[in-house]
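SUBJECT: protein chain
CONTENTS: sequence, structure tokens:
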Amino acid sequence: MKNKKSSNMFRSQVIARILSLCGFLAWATGASAEEPKPTPPAGVRIAILGNSWSVWSGLLLPLAKEAGIEGQIDGTKEAKQRMEKGEIDVVTFGTHGTPEDATFPPKTVEVGLKNNPTFRFYQQAAWPRGDAWWRKKVNEIKTKDDYDNTKIDDLQAATDEDRKGHEGRADGINKALGKRVVFIVPVGDAIVKLRALIVAGKFPGVKRQSEIFRDTMPHQGGQGVLGAWLQAYCHFSAIYRIPPPAPAPLPEGTDQAKKDAFAQHEILRQIAWETVSKYPYAGIAK
């Protein structure tokens, strides 16, 4: 009888331990499982306005798709009519670097907001033309290769000056409207960070600052339009207030050129999110 009781007790202890182990494994599995991904934001009806300083427009739709964002509509065509009907949620505007060159009619903001109470306007604070050589802060740009002589500190100082001008204009318009409608996308600062990495030899596949430009003005377009992609990542981050989506990992056996391109875009996304998310005028940082 005693042996039977001991046997039953031992069996009960074994079962209890098994159940306890199962519970631990279930907890451990749940704890190590990937956290559910947050729901992507809703797509916006967007009009991308400006000139040749806004060459990223065709890259936004693919980014939204990669991020699982649905409902984004390109409303650039007939933007004015669409705004008057309340069919535009976001307008981005990008021209040359200085606030004087990048003036946009406040009427655009007024019309957009009047017909859509959630309307937002994004002003691109871009890179300075010719690295702002006319201000006697950097070397004069006569050929594209002259960009290789620009000192990063001088470039940042010119970029800061331009950005502050945009901030002053945004403050004035927002104050007049009684709410925050105009935001700023600090693309110029992101370009400075990219060029600093190139100078430091920390950006794969690019050895000289001039490689990211296609002319002396300078327009973006060199080295696989890296600057245009950086613009797109910055605008995506500002508009949707989330990091740019990461692509699928490269398969084994990928050649070095594709590995470099993958690494380049990984860095560009990091630059964009770090720059935009920490800049209060972009609408993410408090």
About this structure: The mean pLDDT is 85. DSSP finds eight helices and five strands in the chain.
